[in-house]
Amino acid sequence: MPAHRKKEPFVKLQTIRNHLRQQNLAGWLLYDFRGQNPIAASIADLDFTGTRRWFLWIPADGEPQWLIHSIEQATLDKADPELSGPLHLYVGWQEMEEKLRSILPQDPSSRIAMEYSPNGAIPYVSKIDAGAMETVRAATGAAIVSSADLVQQMQAVLSSRQMESHRRAAAHMLAAKDAAFAFIGQALRRQQEITEYDVQMLIVERFRAADLTWGHDPIVAVNGNAAVPHYAPSAQQHSPIRPGDLVLIDLWAKETTNPDDCFADITWMAYCGAEPPPIARRIFDVVAQARDTGVSLISQALEAGTSLPGYEVDDAVSSVITEAGFGEGILHRTGHSLGPNIHWNGVNIDNVETQDRRTLIPGVMFTIEPGIYLPQLDFDESGQPKGLGIRSEVNCIVHDGRLEVTTLPYQTELIPLGS
Questions:
Q1: Where does the pLDDT of residue 78 fall: very low under 50, low under 70, confident under 90, or very high at 90 and above?
Q2: Most exposed: 56, 138, 204, 387, by fewest CB within 10 Å?
Q3: What does the pLDDT look like over 264-300, one tens digit per residue?
Q4: Is the alpha carbon torsion for 77, 80, 82, 84 positive or negative?
Q5: What is the pLDDT of residue 384?
Q6: What are phi and psi of 106, to 5 degrees?
Q7: Looking at the domain that runs over 13-155, which CATH code has it been given?
Q8: 21 burial class (0-12, 13-18, 19+ CB within 10 angstroms)?
Q9: Average model confidence (pLDDT) for the chain?
């Protein structure tokens, strides 16, 4: 397969081989049909993967080997030249299965990594269907194991350039957050009407002016709306922002210079008045303590050289909230992988939605964003339920021996607005 990009030779292949050997894996079998496995396409460096089934076998020892349909040779000519190796062609399904047997190890004790996650625990890497697994098992008798750790190593470890793109995006997010709260505060002091949607559009305009991309629009949520973690206002449905309200702003975006530029994603809270109610202050303090507990646990582990899986961080963070008496208000994991997509393919800080046993390795980035969501809570003097959701979110990059929090400063109290 001819080269189409100039690359440092054999870095990718050697990294994969090192991981396979360390984990006692016979190899990594990449499989795709019509783009259903974007991880395979990314590793192979293919923008288009054709219309027929293809396999790429990367053994712990030996050359990579390709198995593709005979009419798809031109499509795969553009694959990463570092993964060049013998090319096997098939026409019919019987020939495909026969040649697959000739490529893969015929050893029932061997272990083959594929984009599979036991019990669907890590959906981000569950990209192959049960039938493909059955075909591979029938061809080899080998055990199929998850490639999740391999995927993290190959996709979620960021380059220094990607980290810098994230830091610039983080600066934009913090500035947009400040502008949004200033906009709310000014409207309250002038007794002007203002809505969640108005604030959302202000943030969007700042994103456009900075030439950022963001996907769906940011969250601006008051009171009980913020108790729905993924609530977002729209032109058709939004609430006014009034004195005495709590306001949550969650915003995310990235630069557009390179496709693999990385997102920043932050959440801050404010109170529309001079002095937040005691219960709101109390809940925010618990959330901030939970956030800081997660950051401290990771920092200590990295400084000590201790391996730490994502689920253990989630446990520590959630325990702060539960021990404070607000466990029923936990509705999501502590954090998610962050990268070129807002939810990326590295370790999540999660033992709520799934149990993520991947470890925090140098180069990965993620959020720490504990929240407490209480839709029926009374927090004003009227005695009528207003409901609240309180979340605080920071972004973190793992380095060798240390943790970088890229979205400082920490929020330490609810921001008073309109006083």
A1: confident
A2: 138
A3: 999 999 999 999 999 999 999 999 999 999 999 999 9
A4: negative
A5: 75
A6: -100, 65
A7: 3.40.350.10
A8: exposed
A9: 94
Q: Which CATH superfamily is domain 158-416 in?
A: Creatinase/methionine aminopeptidase superfamily (3.90.230.10)
- Per-residue HEC secondary structure of the chain comes to CCCCCCCCCCHHHHHHHHHHHHCCCCEEEEEECCCCCHHHHHHHCCCCCCCCCEEEEEECCCCCEEEEEHHHHHHHCCCCHHHCCCEEEECCHHHHHHHHHHHCCCCCCCEEEECCCHHHCCHHHCCCCHHHHHHHHHHHCCEEEECHHHHHHHHHCCCHHHHHHHHHHHHHHHHHHHHHHHHHHHHHHCCCCCEHHHHHHHHHHHHHHCCEECCCCCEEEEHHHHHCCCCCCCCCCCCECCCCCEEEEEEEEEECCCCCCCCEEEEEEEECCCCCCHHHHHHHHHHHHHHHHHHHHHHHHHHHCCCCEHHHHHHHHHHHHHHCCCHHHCCCCCECECCCCCCCCCCCECCCCCCCCCECCCCCEEEECCEEEECCCCCCCCCCCCCEEEECEEEEEEECCEEEECCCCCCCCCEECCC
Query: Is the confidence at residue 7, as pLDDT, over 80?
Result: no
Q: Render pLDDT for 93-118 as a digit per residue (tens, 0 to 9).
A: 999 999 999 999 999 999 999 999 99
Among 251, 180, 249, 262, which residue's Cα sits nearest to residue 220? 249
**Amino acid letter, 194:** I
Matching CATH topology for 13-155 and 158-416? no
pTM exceeds 0.90, yes or no: yes
Neighbours of 408 (CB within 10 A): 10
Tell me: pLDDT of 88 over 50: yes
With beta carbons less than 8 A apart as the criterion, state whether 113 and 27 touch: yes
C-alpha–C-alpha distance, residues 66 and 320, integer Å? 50
**pLDDT of 1 above 50:** no
Q: How far is CA 66 from the centre of its chain?
A: 30
CA distance 82 to 13: 7
Measured CA to CA in angstroms, residue 355 lies from 115, 121, 143, 230 at distances of 17, 7, 22, 21
Q: Are the C-beta atoms of 418 and 189 separated by less than 8 Å?
A: yes
Domain extent listing, the chain: 13-155, 158-416
Question: Which residues does residue 89 pair with via DSSP β-bridges, in sequence order?
Answer: 68
Residues 315, 308 contacting (CB under 8 angstroms) = no
- CA end-to-end span of the chain, whole Å? 67
